[in-house]
Design a protein that fits this description.
alpha/beta; seven-stranded mixed beta sheet; 18 helices; 16 strands
Length: 485
């Protein structure tokens, strides 16, 4: 290699290292170019936010810098890896930083500490960049052999990793990090365990501040599990205004897009849907913690086979339909076909979708004919009357039959009150197929996650199902009246 080329390569090398010292994103890219790619925009944003926090440029509405950052991300999307890189990077920027990092147990915390340390100590083997290229004077103190607690040359203490509830006494930090404090759903749905984490956080963790540091940087990074997890407690406290929060969902139902298909594809996500309880998937991957104890419907009755005679004939007295059309663009159309037998309803088909009426009108029409529906009741609110007429016209135009009686009506009762007051009927007198989670995933999720109190993102599924409960209840009252007289 000639001298000119050597000089050119050296200048390029120096420029890359200098850029990595100044920019956390470029630091990550330089050391792990295959993982930190520009198309992984959530990682670009995450790195930018962490650097702004460290540099005092992450500002609130009053123009003052945030010192606290909450990051909610799904698993396997680079949150812990990026936080390990961040620890390395800030130690290179200032070897007087003192980091205290805690995870759900000692092993997880020690792994985090070891990966941070190993990255600093990485030996250059080929023509690739390593930490010492970027921060050549930052070195682990010789003879400081403990993975969970170690120092840099010239310092007494720089890093401590411990499990939640573990010993962190006697150490003061300038950067406090909590990474994944909740290990599993078993802990997430144990209020006593969550309360202990909160008590540890308020009583021990946030008191571990270096006397010289003033207000430390504080970072919590975790997937959301339950409404009363650590993030939930903070978001419900008087301290919430001090926190800058970024939240990433693995799957965005509005757009139908994955956060990062190269890290979690749509097909893999659908596989997870089929394997995991829906409430765990939604909480862990989409940052929608579900309070199991706050569910309106705690259980559902199911059937393996529809009621039939000994000859195999269905015993339904009638097959009905209830349809709640979408009120707004973000709402779902929910159309449910059900059979009535001995005062109870058996759900046999469901359409639950955000598709436009051009698609849902023929789809509902086909469903009504296919399932031999006798009567379809369609809410006429917000365009429902026109929807009902178009479904009726579609059936006539295609099948030349009026076997399906379509009725539209105005629903004037309060939706929330209707849903709550009819919950017992839904739980006791409506049966769902034993595999309804797989048949109608989004409908199943909407039913199983609906909360008794607070806001619910969507209520279309409980609303339509409540319409069936009201029909059953009205028929029961008529029958009771006939028996009296």
């Amino acid at each position: 290699m000639n001298l000119k080329k050597q000089n050119h390569n050296y200048l390029l090398y120096e420029a890359e290292c200098e850029l990595a010292r100044r920019s956390f994103w470029h630091y990550c890219q330089l050391l792990s170019p295959k993982f930190y790619t520009d198309d992984r925009t959530h990682l670009v944003e995450l790195c930018s936010t962490l650097q702004k926090l460290y540099d005092g440029q992450l500002l609130n509405n009053e123009g003052k810098p945030y010192r606290k950052l909450m990051i909610n991300m799904p698993p396997q999307h680079g949150k812990s890896r990026t936080l390990i890189n961040f620890c390395q990077w800030i130690l290179g920027r200032n070897n007087e930083n003192r980091i205290i990092q805690c995870s759900y147990n000692d092993n997880a915390a020690h792994d985090f500490a070891r990966y941070t340390r190993d990255g600093i100590q990485e030996i250059k083997l080929q023509n690739e960049y390593v930490y010492s290229d970027i921060f050549p004077t930052t070195k682990i103190k010789h003879g400081d052999g403990s993975y969970e607690k170690w120092s840099l040359e010239g310092q007494h203490f720089n890093y401590l990793g411990a499990g939640i509830g573990g010993s962190i006494t006697g150490k003061g930090g300038t950067v406090l990090i909590v990474d994944d404090p909740v290990k599993s759903a078993e802990i997430a749905y144990n209020e006593t365990a969550l309360e202990k984490i909160w008590q540890w956080y308020t009583g021990t963790f946030i008191s571990r501040v270096s006397a010289e540091a003033g207000e430390p940087l504080e970072i919590i990074v975790m997937t959301r599990w339950a409404k009363k997890d650590l993030c939930g407690f903070i978001l419900g406290s008087s301290e919430v205004h001090k926190w800058f929060t970024i939240k990433y969902k693995a799957y965005d139902e509005e757009s139908g897009l994955m956060l990062c298909p190269s890290l979690l594809s749509k097909s893999r996500y659908e596989t997870l849907q089929s394997l995991q309880p829906q409430e765990i998937l939604e909480a862990n991957y989409n940052q929608q913690p579900i309070d199991v104890k706050g569910r309106l419907y705690t259980e559902f009755k199911t059937y393996e086979e529809l009621p039939k005679s000994s000859s195999g004939k269905l015993l339904f007295e009638a097959i009905m339909n209830y349809t709640d059309t979408a009120d707004e663009g973000k709402d779902y159309l929910c159309s449910i076909c059900y059979g009535i037998y001995q005062g109870e309803a058996y759900i046999i088909d469901v359409i639950y979708t955000k598709e436009s009426m051009e698609i849902t009108e023929p789809a509902v029409g086909e469903m009504l004919v296919k399932n031999h529906v006798k009567e379809a009741r369609i809410e006429s609110n917000n365009g429902g009357r026109g929807f009902a007429r178009n479904v009726e016209k579609y059936i006539w135009d295609k099948y030349k039959t009026k076997s399906v009686v379509i009725k539209w009506f105005h629903q004037s009762e309060n939706k929330k009150a209707r849903i709550l007051s009819n919950a017992t009927v839904v739980k006791n007198r409506i049966y769902f197929p034993v595999n309804w989670k797989d048949k109608w995933k989004e409908y199943y999720t909407a039913m199983t996650s609906y909360q008794k109190e607070g806001d619910n993102k969507h209520d279309d599924a409980p609303d339509a199902t409540t319409g069936i409960a009201e029909y059953l209840d009205s028929k029961n009252k008529v029958t009771a009246g006939k028996n009296i007289f």
